[in-house]
Write a structure and sequence with these properties.
Blueprint: E1 15-19, E2 26-27, E3 30-31, H1 35-49, E4 53-57, H2 77-84, E5 88-91, H3 96-104, E6 111-114, H4 128-135, E7 140-143, H5 154-158, E8 165-167, H6 169-183, E9 189-193, H7 202-208, E10 214-217, H8 219-228, H9 243-256, E11 259-261, E12 265-269, E13 278-282, E14 291-295, H10 297-309, E15 312-316, H11 329-343, E16 348-352, H12 354-363, E17 371-373, H13 377-383, H14 389-392
Helix pairs in contact: 1-2, 8-9, 10-11, 11-12
C-alpha cells in the first residue's frame, strides 16, 4: 500500500488535523461506552510525544447539515480528557474564525476538538471549499477513522488531498490487518458470512468466492441456500425470491474452487424466543411449522474442521439467532475454536460488523482474535472489494 504512517511524518511543532471516529453512545450527557475514544488514544499520544499539536475533526450523529445542540461534540470533552490525560480545548465550529482562534491559542501538550463536521451540509458533499477552510488550521492531515473511510466527505477525502497525509495508529492497524486477511493472506483462507439476508450481501459473497478457499454461510442466509437445494425450511427466515441467485453463487463457487459450507444439521423451534422448546434435526427434516434458529453440532464440527485446515479467517455475521439462548451455541462454539487456534499461533483471525462484534464479545472469544474491526459499513465494503475513498486519498 502507498499510504504513510505517523512514523513517516515530521510532526515536531506541526499542527496535525486528525480525523477520528468518536461517534460514541451518550445518555444524559455522559458517554456510556468509550471504546471508540480509547482506540484513538495511541494516535493522539504519539502526536503529542513527537511535539505535534493534535486537532481533532469528527462527526457525531446525523444533524442533517445544521447545528443541533444535542449533537454537539462539546459533551465528549470530559471523556476525551480522561482518556488522553491532558487538557482538551473545544471550538464551537470546525472552520472559520472560532476554530482558527482556538487553534492559534492551543498550547503545547494540549488537544483541540473542533465542533461536529456534519453541522455543515457541505461536509457530506465532499466540498473542497469546506476542506480548504479546515486545511488552514493544519500542517499535516492524519486519518484515524477507518470506520468513516467508505464516505467521500470533506474531512475524510477532500482534506487528505490538500495536506501531507498519513494514517493514524488505528487506521494503520485496520489496514494492516485487512491486507493480511484478504490482500496477501496465508492460505487456506476461510470466510464466515452470516446474517439475515442474501440480498444485502450479494457483492460480499461475489467477491469472497473469488478470493477464499472456504466460505461458511450461516444465519438466515443459510436458509435461502438450503431452499435453493430443494430443502424445506418451514417457517424459517429465508428469501424465497433469492433461490436462483443462491444457486448461481454456488455454481460460481464451484467454478472458482471455493468450497461452500452449509448447515448439516439444524436446531429448530416453533417460537422465536429465549429457551423455546427446540430439537436438533438433520438438515433435510425441518418440519413445516419449524423455524431454523441455529446450526447443530454436526455443522459446528464441520466448521471447526475447516478452521483447523485454515491459516486465515475472516468473519462477518453470526451462525444463528445468537441474541437468544440457546441459539447462540453454534456461533459461540465456532468462535471459541477460532480463538483457541489464534492463541496457538495457528490462525490469523479478523472479524468485523456490529452483530459480529457483539456475538464474539458475548462468547468471550473476541479478546483472542487477531483483530476486531469496530467499523461497520467500511469493513463490509472492504470485504466486498470496493475502493474506500478515505483510504484511496491517503495513497496519493
Amino acid at each position: 500500500m502507498g499510504w504513510k504512517s505517523l512514523d513517516d511524518m515530521d510532526l515536531n511543532g506541526k499542527r496535525v488535523l486528525v480525523r477520528v471516529d468518536i461517534n460514541v453512545p451518550v445518555a444524559d450527557g455522559q458517554v456510556t461506552d468509550d471504546t471508540r475514544i480509547q482506540r484513538i488514544v495511541p494516535t493522539v499520544q504519539d502526536i503529542l510525544k513527537a511535539g505535534g499539536k493534535p486537532i481533532l475533526l469528527a462527526h457525531f450523529g446525523r444533524p442533517g447539515g445544521e447545528p443541533r445542540p444535542n449533537l454537539s461534540l462539546k459533551q465528549l470533552v470530559p471523556a476525551l480528557e480522561a482518556a488522553f490525560g491532558t487538557t482538551v480545548r473545544f471550538a464551537d465550529d470546525c472552520v472559520g474564525y472560532e476554530a482558527e482562534k482556538a487553534e492559534a491559542a492551543l498550547g503545547t501538550g494540549e488537544v483541540l476538538l473542533l465542533e461536529n463536521t456534519r453541522f455543515h451540509a457541505e461536509e457530506t458533499k465532499n466540498s473542497i471549499d469546506l476542506a480548504k477552510g479546515m486545511a488552514k488550521m493544519g500542517d499535516v492531515y492524519c486519518n484515524d477513522a477507518f470506520s468513516a473511510a467508505h464516505r467521500a466527505h470533506s474531512s475524510t477525502e477532500a482534506l487528505a488531498r490538500l495536506l501531507p497525509a498519513c494514517a493514524g495508529r488505528l487506521m494503520q492497524q485496520e489496514l494492516s490487518a485487512l491486507e493480511n486477511a484478504l490482500g496477501s493472506p496465508k492460505r487456506p483462507v476461510t470466510a464466515v458470512v452470516g446474517g439475515a439476508k442474501v440480498s444485502t450481501k450479494l457483492d460480499l459473497l461475489g467477491n469472497l468466492i473469488e478470493k477464499v478457499d472456504y466460505l461458511v454461510i450461516g444465519g438466515g442466509m443459510a436458509n435461502t441456500f438450503l431452499l435453493a437445494q430443494g430443502l424445506n425450511v418451514g417457517k424459517s427466515l429465508a428469501e424465497h425470491g433469492m433461490t436462483e441467485t443462491a444457486s448461481d453463487i454456488m455454481a460460481k463457487a464451484e467454478s472458482t474452487g471455493c468450497k461452500i459450507i452449509l448447515p448439516r444439521d439444524i436446531v429448530v423451534a416453533e417460537k422465536f424466543e429465549a429457551n423455546a422448546s427446540h430439537q436438533t434435526l438433520p438438515v433435510d427434516q425441518c418440519p413445516n411449522e419449524g423455524m431454523i434458529l441455529d446450526a447443530g453440532p454436526e455443522s459446528v464440527a464441520a466448521i471447526v474442521d475447516v478452521f483447523e485446515q485454515s491459516q486465515t479467517l475472516i468473519w462477518n455475521g453470526p451462525l444463528g439467532a445468537f441474541e437468544i439462548e440457546p441459539f447462540n451455541a453454534a456461533t459461540d462454539a465456532a468462535a471459541l475454536k477460532a480463538a483457541e487456534l489464534t492463541r496457538a499461533g495457528k490462525l490469523i483471525s479478523v472479524a468485523g460488523g456490529g452483530d459480529t462484534v457483539a456475538a464474539l464479545n458475548a462468547s468471550g472469544a473476541a479478546k483472542d482474535f487477531s483483530y476486531i474491526s469496530t467499523a461497520g459499513g467500511a469493513f463490509l465494503e472492504w470485504m466486498e472489494g470496493k475502493t474506500l475513498p478515505g483510504v484511496a486519498a491517503l495513497d496519493q
